């Protein structure tokens, strides 16, 4: 009985963790093999060890998340031609895999070998066309960056601490997306907001690119239009300037211009009226001429 109670209790925790998204996915047409990886909570000493090792304080919402489950993985597939094709993936790395993006320089590397720090320059602090965007992270010691999700190779979602000083504990963090061209894109200010964003986008491929200037690939847009039409259509105006080309804008006045003619029935009636009036005038003229005679 205790095992049954424990399983039911964990099922309730899993339901709250996934915000009920598993049931929604299972009811979607074509969706199969929805899997949620069950994980034990992280130990407090592992969190303290991580903070001491990286000289950073985990945000409170991320700490609570790890004390509930040590990482998060939810995947789902679609059925195409009797084959299961993996499609959606929602992932948050465990504490052990919350590794720095910038690894220390190896002793065996060449002395003049290029590094990510060589990509830093002051002009890339904000994206072009976004004057009020927050300052982008740096690849040098000014920022401490940790990988939350590898995004299946399409980029990296990172926990970022900016304006860091060597030897000083960093406390304030943000969530950023690093695309394949090594440009930074701001996602959210808190982990909770990012987590809800990930759930809302169902873990679809390249959903993070909806917050970039160029947007997801055409194939990713097709998947999003199938399984996430509401959010996909709202993201078009924000992330894809040319996205309105997918919308059907029909103006009846222009599409059917020149088609609206006067009904033939009215023409016949008017013609009959004209014939009737001429006949009446001729009849009146005949009467007058007969009377004169």
From TrEMBL:
Ranges of residues in domain Knr4/Smi1-like: 41-197
Protein name, UniProt field: Tubulin polyglutamylase complex subunit 2
Signal peptide range in chain numbering: none
InterPro entries linked to this entry: Knr4/Smi1-like_dom (IPR018958), TPGS2 (IPR039231)
Annotated Polar residues bias: 270-284
Location of region: Disordered: 267-293
